[in-house]
Amino acid sequence: MRLISANVNGIRATARRGGLTWLGAQHADVITLQEVRASDDQLHKVLADTGLGDWHVTSAPGRTKGHAGVAVLTRLPPVRTSSDIGPVEFTDAGRWLEVDLRGPDGPVTVISTYVHTGEALTPRQDEKMRFLDAVGSRLETLAANDGYAALTGDLNICHSADDLKNWKGNVGKSGFLPAEQAHLDRWVSDHAYVDVHRALHGPGPGPYTWWSWRGKAFDNDAGWRIDYQFASAPLARLATRAEVGRAAAYDERWSDHAPLTVDYDLDLR
Q: For this structure, is 29 an active site residue?
């Protein structure tokens, strides 16, 4: 199973820049998207126009036009889909989508999530923390009975200083707060999830997955690693390769994020 996660920063903009052509050429089995920023009709039209129209597409648009939105594209038909993470305040927020696929030993749950950006010491940060609470509860349920699950997407959190080039300059800012990092710690320690990208790559710094469009951030590799694939323990044991699809040059970028590809030694049915 080749699983690619990508924050497209607007599906139509990514299509214009060639991102969907790139994704379609990667021999993926599952593609998860974040910040789609499109209605269902708009998403299906863009995919059809760029050669991905024959995939099975499940999406959860954001309730606010042009904001958020997640999707999962699969070559095989899903057996279950859900955008319910629990709390009513996140219903129709376009930040959570689960798709179950048939695996050799039962369902394989793939999640596309887009966690809030947040802003320290504001209601926006409080909302982000409530969402992370809900994510942790759902991951605990999915990990029960040794289930296969992969949480993919833009978490808007750097787990450690290895994940942020200018970590000293971001102390106390959203995305690098100890309270945020503690959530990821609990996923690992309490629920046995594995950050498969870091596990396969080894220690940092980097590789990063997001760079500002402004200035020389991309050229200087002054980035953040905020896009992840956290796999439950049984699935993590099957991860064999992880790679960040960083563009060769600034003018070849199709998003401010780079896609994250992970290969798992697992056959979907």
A: no
- Alpha-carbon distance of 244 to 191, in angstroms, equals 25
Are the C-beta atoms of residues 3 and 264 closer than 8 Å to each other?
A: yes
The residue from 116, 191, 197, 257 that is catalytic is 257
The residue type found at 20 is: L
Which of 29, 148, 154, 163 is an active site residue?
A: 154
Is 148 marked active-site? no
Q: Could you tell me the strand order of the sheet in which 106-114 lies?
A: 80-82, 96-103, 106-114, 148-154, 227-231, 194-195
For residue range 130-153, what is the model confidence (pLDDT) as tens digits?
A: 999 999 999 999 998 899 999 999
List of residues 6+ apart from 45 with CB closer than 8 A: none
| CATH class of domain segment(s) 2-264 | alpha beta
Note if 264 is an active site residue: no
Tell me what pLDDT residue 11 has. Answer: 98
Q: How far is CA 53 from CA 11, 212, 263, in A?
A: 14, 31, 23
> Residue 214 class from Cβ within 10 Å (0-12 exposed, 13-18 middle, 19+ buried)?
exposed
Name the amino acid, one letter, at 101: L
Q: Any idea where the domains of the chain sit in the sequence?
A: 2-264
Q: pLDDT tens across 91-124, in order?
A: 999 999 999 999 999 999 999 999 999 999 999 9
Report residue 157 as tokens: 């959190």
Tell me how far apart the alpha carbons of residues 96 and 33 are, in angstroms, rounded to a whole number: 11
d(CA 259, CA 186): 25
Question: Residue 97 corresponds to which amino acid?
Answer: L
**Rounded Cα–Cα distance for residues 185 and 193 (Å):** 9
